[in-house]
Batch of 4 targets.
Target 1
Amino acid sequence: MDKSEYTVQELVNDPSFVEWAMGDSEGDRAVFWNEWVKKSDEHRRKALDAQKKITGLRFTTPQLPDIKNEWSKVRDDIERQNNIRFRNPEDRATGNNGGLMGYLFKAAAVLLIGAFVGLALYMYQEPTPESEPVAIMTVETGYAEKKTINLSDGSSVILAAGSKLTYKSNWLDQPVKRVGLEGEAYFSITPKESKNKPKFVVETEDGSAAVWGTLFTVDTYGEGTKVVLEEGEVRVKVASPETPSTPEMKMQPGEMAQFHKSREQIALNKVNPAVYTSWTTNELYFDETPFSVLVSRIERTYGKEVKIKDPGILDMRLSGSIDFRSLDGLMNAVSEVMDVNIYKSEETVIIEQNN
């Protein structure tokens, strides 16, 4: 991958770029393409055009004229003109049908012009909102899986396990890019120069988070939505059906916003962002974090039910970091650090005090 210049078609045909565009690229390949798109505006433009083709953006295809039907109309007009002209005995005697032939050539010319105009529209017309419904695209992750979605401007989205991201197929063409989220995701959005409109909006069942350029997580697991801001600027808003014009609340780095569609209030609390973002680096960081947070993370990441034999375990506090690359590794680390016994079955993880 030492080639520095690509055409759009070469990008579309390059398996490593396709993986990157679809969010399946990792390691050196992901680093290569991330750096490549940042090198110049030309690279970003080519990456954007190629990404549009790969992700299936569609264009309107207007119908061509119905040639058979149009010729039928011409023939009917010719016959009608013929009947009118040959009512004159002189025309019938002399065979004077020059006007008729002229009409025929004009009609044929009009038909052909119409066909070529239709072909031109077919080839060059751009879509309008009324002419074609926009498809909804979806990226999903299973248990113990996460995906990275890279955008051509250097932005990226890391989708956590058991999550779903939805977006319209023409979203890359929109001035404000909108995505829907169920589950959890980490967003790294390249800053936008203009402050008039946000660059990116994440919508959940409970409301939205609008950003101009920032690092943050959105979590819809459990009750309501949680947004944790690591860096930059985020404005959150509740999607309240009772009061659609609810005001936005601006967050500061190091804050967590919690909101629910059934309540107008947004709760803001100071937190350590690393506790909520460390999962993206295959480790879990804790800062006097309740054990219940780890239990919730295990259930939603690995799809296992966690049973606590001694309720007092949930009151324990965790500090430090734990390897999160596998459930077995996580269980061994927690067992040693917290002095608890952990057992795993097909569908369940059982945690009890070490007697």
Target 2
Amino acid sequence: MRSVRARAALGATLVVAVALAAAGLAVLLVLRGNLTDRAGLEAEVTAREVAGELALGATYAELDLDDDDHPVQVTDEEGRVVAVSKDLEAISGTGTAGVVRVSPAPAPGPGDDDDEDDGSDPPRSEVSSDSPDFTNGTATIDGEKADYRFAAVEVTTKEDVTLTVHAGAPLAAEQEAVNTVRTSMLTGLPVMLLVVAGVTWLVTRRALRPVEGIRRELAAITASEDLGRRVPEPDSRDEIARLARTTNETLTVLQASVDRQRRFVADASHELRSPIASLRTQLEVGAAHPELLDLPGAVTDTVRLQVLAADLLLLARLDAGERPGRTAVDLGALVREEVSQRTADRIAPQVSVADGPLEVAGSRGQLARVVGNLLDNAERHAERSVAVTVRAERDEVLVEVTDDGPGVPEAEQDRIFERFVRLDDARSRDDGGAGLGLAIARDVAARHGGTLTVGTAPSGGARFTLRLPLPGRERP
């Protein structure tokens, strides 16, 4: 069953069916119990009436046992039947199946030893006040057999004889009522389940209609590959509306990612075209005229291609979600090492490393790339000085790189971290770089749980601040 509507309708129908069955069974049990208790009360009233007559001294022949709806059987202590309704032909459920009266033993006469006056009080007749015993059984009256609820009441006569009066009340009304209710339930249950299934189907269909619209639009987007389209958003505030909004947000992010990837590929192709074309020209000239081969220029273009290829490879790994290692890296020693290798730079950076814990967890190679990119950028724009400061601040290690160049306009301080963005487009590509250094630096900082920002140095130039958390203090 692949349809959500069908599964919802079936599930709701099953739940309602179980609930109605349980409720119906409970109603039947309560109804049967109440009617049975009522029949027992009728039987108890009849039994106590007969027991009252016996307690008042009525003989067995004087008992009023003509009620055909309430059969009566009176037994003595030995279980012998001493009185019975006249039309009772058979009985069960009272403990004694006899329906024929047995003559009781004669009462003691005045001259018997047992009747001698011994000075004791005469026997007192009474009806037991205890709750009667109830049983279910059958009785046949005038050839008709029926079910009855019997009540047994004990009575002590004036002759100190203990008798048990069994009186019954018919259960026909109880059985008829229970059967009527059961039939009504069995008849109405299928109708009720059909109504529940139909209503659930219609309600679910209406509720899922926006989902079908979302599905169709996504299928159209997939077929057309047009990420500029959006799925319809319902006016409601339910889960489906939130699903539509989340889907559109996902499409927006996906579109931005695809656009960024396309720009990246286009910009990378554009950046690669220039050194490749230059290198090819030099090689072709060298092949035709060896004496004119510009070997240093060819080497420079080759190095530029190598650097650009390495940058593109690193960006691809970062975009793929590559996580840096967890090696302990001393940023103070790393900065000193990077500066010591830059002997041929136009401006020698001034390094200041503070005391204290300066170790962070991460990839030494990637962090060295960040420091190197910041130094390259500072040297490119500085006029006379470049300074690097490393210090600890609360739970972070800060690396600040400043220069005395023109600085970065405030409106451009976020844009310079975008890929292939250069604020010095008037310069040659060879001097200005490909515009990937700062983008790589910020991505690496983010992968290490840190940040890279730019501001204005006291000298008016640019100040780049790299913040990396100390081990164990990384952001969640």
Target 3
Amino acid sequence: MSSVRAKAALGATAVVAVALVAAGTAVLLSLRANLTDQADRQADSVAREVALDIAAGVRGPAAYAGLDLPDEEDHPVQVADEDGRLLAASEKLERISGTGVSAVTPGRPGAVRGGEDRDDDGEDDKGGDGDDDEPGVGEIGDVLGHTTGTATVDGAAGEYRFAALEVTDRSGRTVVVHAGASLTARDDAVGTAAVAMLIGLPVLLVVVGGVTWLVTRRALRPVEGIRSEMAAITASADLSRRVPEPATHDEVARLARTTNETLAALEAAVERQRRFVADASHELRSPIASLRTQLEVGDAHPELLDVPGAVADTVRLQRLAADLLLLARLDAGETPGAGRLDLAALVREEVSQRATDRVPVASELPDPADAAAEVAGSRGQLARVLGNLLDNAQRHARASVRVSVTRGADGRVVLGVADDGSGVPEAERERIFARFVRLDDARSRDDGGAGLGLAIARDVAERHGGTLTVGTSPAGGALFELRLPPAGAATG
């Protein structure tokens, strides 16, 4: 059963069926109990009427033969002494069980009443209050209890509830009145209710299943639209298409919106990848073509071979390949190690190796014994960031490049690289971090690079849980600030 609609319909039907069966059983049991209680009250009433007659006027055993006892089918009556001998019974009573006195003809001893009988529910039904004191002369005692039994009255057999009631007549004799109330009405009502439930239950289950099927089908119709559109997008590889969004505010609508957001992000990623491949191919083409030309000229005319130029093109090609490889690793989700390093010490080391730079690099660093500049991450990648920022400053500085390491107000370690060049226009301060972007189109490729340095620097900063931003330096040029969490802090 692979259909969600079928599963939902079957599940709803099963739940409703269980609930209805439980509720129906409870209703039938409650109805049966209530009607049984009603029969008990009827039996009590009949027994009390007979007991009133006995308490008011009967004197001696012979007087019981003249008692006016009900003879209809619904209320059979027996009057027996404490030894179980029948003193009086309904005229049409032919057979009886459940009272403890099996005789139906006065004067013949029956089974001795044991004081308790078994009810139809399998439990003993004993006296009502357990009081064994006999009533006084002319008084009626409490109901001793109720039992379920059978009786045949005028040829008609049926099930009855019997009430036992003690009464003492005017001669001081204590007798027990057994009066019954028919359970036919109870059985008929319970049977009718059970039949109605058995007929109505399947019909109701069919209705529930059908309605659930239709409602689920209607609710899942947008999902089918989303599925079919996604299948079409997969087949056509056209990521510009979008799935239909229902005009509702439910889970299906949120699923459609999330799917479209995913498609938009995927389309943007694919487009970035295409641009990256195209730009990388374009950037690689120039040094390769230049190097090839120089080698071909050198092969034909060795005296014209420009060895320094060939070496420069080779170095440029090597750097570009390294940049592309690093970007590929970053795009693949490569994360830096968790090693600790002193950012100030890293700056000292890198600056000391740049003695041949066009503009001398001044540094403002904390004391080597101060651990405030410790960060966690990859030494190689952070050295690459610092080198890229210094290379960028060297290209734009007039006479001053300054690097500093401080502790920011937010507790982060801040690496700043400032120059006194023309700076970065505010409108371009985010664009310069895009790949293969060079703001100065007049700058030669050899001087300006491929436009990957700042993109790599920001990607590395983000992989280390930090940020890289650009602003204005005190000297009026550009100020790049790399903010990294201190060692031991969560990088999120």
Target 4
Amino acid sequence: MDRPTSTVPADVPPRPPRRRPSRSGLLTWIALACALAVLAAALWDRRREPVVDRTVGEVTRVGVADGDSIPDYQRAAAAELAALAAPATPGTGDHALVSFAGYLTPARLADTLGGTPVSAVVARVPLPGRQTEIVRIAAMRLPDDVVAGMAEVAARKDREAADYRVRAAAPSAAADAELRRVYDTGASVSAREAAAYRSGCACVYAAVVRDTPDALRALAARPGVRVVDAAPEVRRLDRTVFTPPLPEQRDVVRPPADTGLADPAAPGVGDSSEAAPTVSGSSPSPGRSATGAGPPNPVPTS
């Protein structure tokens, strides 16, 4: 028996052939999904990154520089202090670098500042004809913090003196008279610095303070105060280099000279005739920039 055959009407179009999924389209979607995954991961990692301090590398400089005229610096500082306006935020005050007419003991320092809020002091042992280290000591309570900071510096100087003695006794120094002479001198100077700081010497010659403009102007008139260099541009003390003039500097800031090398008979603590170590940047001046390149002051010793 013959099977019946189906017939398709002539007016019905033929069924289109079944199309298989495009392989290229599938790959496109896979690539797009991978790209989105990578982007999401990158955004997540960025959210976890620490906040970058954009002030790192920027240093504010306040004080004098090698070659600066001391009288010009004093006049410019006085003019800037006279024109200093009240800060935008009441009660905060402005930072200022206060230079003294002489080297002060911790107790004399407290009397000279007369209750002005202090952040740090700058000190050195004024050995005649010797280049001694300039140190910055954090100090908020006077004179206690300065005395404690001097004790820490004295302990460090004791270690330096001991290290110099060890180097002087080494075979390399025994065979080199000049090298032995340098080590002996270093040991002598460090030991004398240690003894001076331990005794609470008259070594402080500047202070970093913060007060209102009227209070800073009153401070400038106090006995023993040489210069009040207002620095309203200072925002971070740890990113500020303070370079006050030494009390013995009267005309121009000059590079230091050590005239007493390897002289064990040199006198004790006294007035130095040498300038401070070379510094960079100055304040105030008409075109003073608040920031610059270079390292900040050493970390406070207390």
